[in-house]
Amino acid sequence: MRHYEIVCIFDPNLDEAVATQKLDALNPLLLKDDGEIVAIDHWGLKQFAYPIKDRKNGYYVVNQMIVDPEGLPEFERLLGLDEDVLRYLIVTNHGEPTNQESILSEVFHKPDMTDDHESEDESKGVRETVGPRGSAKRRQMDGPPVAILNYKDVDRLSQFITEQAKILPKRTTKVSASFQRQLTTAIKRARFLALLPYVGSHEA
Questions:
Q1: Band of the pLDDT at 202, cuts 50, 70, 90?
Q2: pLDDT value at position 105?
Q3: Does 165 reside within a domain?
Q4: Are the C-beta atoms of 84 and 14 separated by less than 8 Å?
């Protein structure tokens, strides 16, 4: 059994009742052999960061389940055949909540003013000064460290990209190598789900 998070983006004309009905029809493929639904979060209608299949928004549902991965191929096949499913993402859940917030550490220890230890800068909130052409001149790390980075946390992820939607490099973010890898993966997932843009501006 593994803990998965499934994000489905439905046609914007669907409401909660229809989206629930569709998921209820598919979930038994995963729930056999003592699988369980941990949480279902209907975000509802959200505007896309860029158009998907000529739509400017979609109905988002986040579903967390503990299931046997054996049923995933058929589950994905049927999702792909449903014309009302604009896009979906299935990932292993590592403690991220269904909402759009990361989990912060309860205790914040002010870091030393050195760059010798990776952990001192890792996963902290940031403030940036943006220079010409969207380049970040300097980033100030402050606030409590992030215990679990949520790829759906658009506000936090946006702090690590330029106005041209490029991911800032480690030499600029000053975070650890491990957190930079997490950050890159999270931004790529957010982009796929149209929560963040791929470029600075998308034509409608």
A1: low
A2: 79
A3: yes
A4: yes
CA distance 198 to 71: 32
pLDDT above 50: residue 140: no
DSSP-assigned states of every residue in 69-95: GGGHHHHHHHHHH-TTEEEEEEEE-SS
Residue 193: how many CB atoms within 10 A of its CB?
A: 24
Residue at 62 is within a domain: yes
> Are the C-beta atoms of residues 176 and 117 closer than 8 Å to each other?
no
> Does the pLDDT at position 109 exceed 70?
no
Number of residues in the chain: 204
Tokens for 188? 């790529």
pTM over 0.90: no
Residue after which a domain boundary falls, among 60, 76, 92: 92
138 by Cβ neighbours in 10 Å (0-12 / 13-18 / 19+) ranks as exposed
CA 91 to chain CA centroid, Å, is 10
Please tell me which of 54-58, 133-137, 197-201 the model is most confident about, judged by mean pLDDT. Answer: 54-58
In total, how many domains does the chain have? 2
The residue segments making up the domain with residue 35 are 2-92
| Nearest CA among 162, 155, 152, 159 for reference residue 185 | 152
Question: Do 148 and 86 sit in the same domain of this protein?
Answer: no
The answer, yes or no, to whether residue 112 has pLDDT greater than 60, is: no
